[in-house]
Specification:
The complex is a heterodimer of chains A (about 220) and B (about 450). Chain A is α/β, with parallel strands linked by helices and about 220 residues long. Chain A folds into 2 domains: about 120 residues, Rossmann fold (3-Layer(aba) Sandwich), CATH 3.40.50.2300; about 90 residues, Orthogonal Bundle (Arc Repressor Mutant, subunit A). A 5-stranded parallel β-sheet of chain A has the order 2-1-3-6-7, sandwiched between helices. Chain B folds into 3 domains: about 140 residues, no CATH class; about 100 residues; about 140 residues, Histidine kinase-like ATPase, C-terminal domain (Heat Shock Protein 90, 2-Layer Sandwich), CATH 3.30.565. With about 450 residues, chain B is of the alpha+beta class. Chain B starts with 5 loop residues before the first helix and ends in a 7-residue tail after the last strand. Chain B has 8 helices and 13 strands. Classes of the chains: A alpha/beta (about 220), B alpha+beta (about 450). The interface between A and B is medium-sized, with 27 and 28 residues.
Chain lengths: ~220, ~450
């Protein structure tokens, strides 16, 4: 997933970015409302992690702006403001979830997967295609009865395809999910990861529509 | 009409007593003056009577035979008691003539012109015929005393009316005079942590206006101090939570990045210590917020969605089926600060999760009467321990980790909301477990 992290604290932001990247997500880290606003305007995100107290304003303002957009971009508030009234204000402004600092990074990942699943109208975390069962939130993929180990990048590509199961996903969309701003994009990276996934999960799992993109199932 | 109390009662008693005492003093002085004046009048009458009587009696005496016994002279047409009695005596003291009420025995006073007193009479002696005859006219002292006593008694009669009238007048006057004071008292009485607005000093008399101004200045200082305290506690929570969250997140990353071994174990110890620090800081700041007076509010709030939101948080963190939630069908509106209520309820549920028997069902039940109970399974807590659980840093007989502040925070906050926290073990309807009940009466802090 391509995730926008809005957080002005270096220690929290760094740890969250690294943890999400290790889980295979592309993370753009904005340290102010204005920078986050710029990112949201130019990139297509799957999810936004939003701090409320930012140096140049409140995250709630940005959340309200995001909610005016036609797409239902999921937003999880990450804040040190723990009062019920803060939480109600955040949820009323349109946040999908609200996590109070300090939080467990594992709990954060679980919430991210749950919110992303909800926003894509996938009621269960598991997707089954033929003999392959993909559980994105648990990071478990099985081919028949045997478990298959995937790298973070392979997971990112598989997640991107699984989110749009049965639909064609362009190479550019997969690249967006793989690379944050500033990352060096290898020209044939998508082809390489798709090829590795076919090798691990079966050649028929991902179909190529020449000149358009890839499709799962 | 209610009996006056306090200052009114004291003023009525003191002013009435003062009126009574001044009246008594006035009567005493009046009695003394009256007695002296009466003596003058009576003495003058005695002297005049003597002067008029003496020539008549001397003339009468000379017409008599000298060997006669003392003669008793009656008044024509009168046979009753007479105030004045007299004796005409010779220089040897023998009674020659006497009035009809006088005894023939001589008055016990010397035969010298002027006034003299016996035990019962005031006697005036006048001399005639070159000091050979003496007329003594006596006036009974009882007569004079009776005159003074009757006059003084008449002065006491108005007191019977004066005392109740003065009590009523003073009461009405004091009530009217003290009405602004009562108004000021009730104005100050409605001020509390949620209402520190200035007093309405415009209608007060100048004497009380200055008190109201001083109280207003004090209220303003109190409001500023309370706001600063609340803001400090709230901001401290935020400012402390951020660096702790940073350290914890970095430590968790370190745990993921380190290979298994001593380094990873040490990083886990750091994570545990940071979690403990975070929890303790949280509790201390909650305690500070509770002490700074959060709890009451100036408007109603429905507590049902708050209970639901908090319980769902715990359901998400624990096994969802482990916490059973029962909510009323109608809103549960109370005039309480929802943040304070949230902190109190969160502490009670945390306590139940931490100390409840592992894996057993926990219940949170909000009822329409304003009772919110949190119930968990587990061993019975002895009654002697129960009473101490709401004391700060006091922990029950448990091996579970905790600061010993959760129930103290909940208890302080609930008390500030105008409610009460009840602890019971075993829980209601069970033979084991622990139950904490928040009871918020409908008129809490209204």
């Amino acid at each position: 997933m391509r995730i926008l992290l809005t957080e002005d604290d270096g220690a929290i932001g760094g740890a969250v970015r690294d943890h999400l990247a290790a889980d295979g997500h592309a993370v753009d880290w904005a340290k102010s409302v204005s920078r986050a606003r710029d990112y949201v305007a130019v990139a297509s995100y799957d999810l936004v992690l939003l701090d409320l107290n930012l140096p140049d304003g409140s995250g709630i303002t940005l959340l309200r702006e995001i909610r005016k957009r036609p797409d239902a971009l999921p937003v999880i508030i990450l804040t040190a403001m723990d009062q019920i009234t803060d939480r109600i204000e955040g949820l009323n402004a349109g946040a999908d979830d609200y996590l109070v600092k300090p939080f467990d990074l594992g709990e954060l990942l679980a919430r991210i997967h749950a919110v992303a699943r909800r926003s894509k109208a996938r009621p269960t975390p598991a997707v089954t295609i033929g003999k392959v069962e993909i559980n994105s939130s648990e990071r478990i993929v099985k081919r028949g009865a045997s478990r298959v180990e995937l790298t973070a990048r392979e997971w990112a590509v598989l997640d991107c395809l699984a989110d749009r199961k049965g639909s064609i996903v362009s190479r550019g969309q997969i690249e967006d999910a793989l690379y944050e701003f500033g990352a060096e994009i290898e020209s044939n990276a998508v082809e390489v990861y798709v090829s590795r996934l076919r090798k691990k999960l079966g050649a028929g799992l991902i179909k190529t529509t020449r000149g358009v993109g890839y499709r799962l199932g | 009409m209610t009996l006056p109390t306090g200052m009114t009662r004291q003023l009525i008693l003191l002013l009435t007593a003062a009126t009574f005492i001044f009246w008594l003093l006035a009567v005493a002085v009046g009695a003394s003056v009256m007695r002296s004046e009466f003596d003058e009048v009576f003495d003058s009458a005695l002297k005049e009577t003597s002067a008029r009587l003496l020539p008549l009696l001397v003339e009468d005496l000379f017409k008599r035979d000298p060997g006669d016994a003392p003669r008793r002279i009656g008044f024509a047409g009168t046979d009753g008691d007479e105030y004045l009695t007299y004796q005409l005596r010779d220089s040897g003291g023998r009674v020659l003539l006497h009035s009809h009420s006088a005894e023939p025995v001589p008055f016990d006073v010397p035969l010298a012109p002027g006034f003299a007193d016996t035990a019962t009479h005031r006697v005036y002696t006048d001399a005639a015929v070159s000091g050979t005859l003496f007329l003594q006219v006596a006036d009974p002292l009882d007569h004079r005393r009776e005159a003074v006593a009757e006059s003084v008694a008449s002065l006491f009669l108005p007191l019977a009316l004066l005392i109740p009238a003065s009590v009523l007048a003073i009461w009405l006057l004091v009530r009217r005079t003290l009405a602004p004071l009562e108004e000021l008292r009730s104005e100050i009485g409605v001020r509390d942590g949620t209402n520190l607005s200035p007093l309405n000093a415009g209608r007060l008399p100048p004497e009380l206006g200055s008190i109201a101004l001083s109280v207003d200045r004090l209220l303003e200082r109190l409001r500023v101090a309370l706001d600063a305290e609340r803001e400090f506690a709230a901001n401290s929570a935020h400012e402390l939570r951020t660096p702790i969250a940073g350290a914890l997140a970095q430590t968790q990353r370190l745990i993921h990045e380190l290979p298994d071994g001593a380094g990873k174990r040490r990083a886990r110890d750091v994570e545990k210590a940071l979690s403990g620090l975070s929890h303790l800081a949280e509790k201390l700041l909650q305690m500070a917020r509770a002490d700074s007076g959060i709890g009451p509010a100036d408007k109603d709030a429905d507590l049902v969605p708050i209970v639901s939101l908090i319980v769902k948080d715990f359901q998400r963190a624990a096994n969802k089926d482990r916490i059973h939630l029962t909510l009323p069908n109608s809103p549960l509106r109370r005039r309480v600060d929802v943040d304070a209520f949230g902190i109190a309820l969160r502490n009670l549920i945390e306590n139940a999760v931490k100390h409840g028997a592992g894996g057993k069902l926990m219940e949170v039940c909000a009822r329409e009467d304003g009772t919110i109970s949190v119930l968990n399974a587990g061993p019975v807590v002895p009654a002697t321990e129960l009473a101490n659980l709401t004391r700060r840093f006091k922990r029950g007989p448990t091996a579970a980790l905790g600061s010993g502040l959760g129930l103290a925070i909940a208890s302080t906050l609930i008390e500030r909301m105008g409610g009460r926290l009840e602890l019971a073990s075993p829980a209601a309807g069970r033979t084991d477990g622990f139950e904490a009940r928040i009871i918020l009466p409908p008129d809490a802090k209204r």
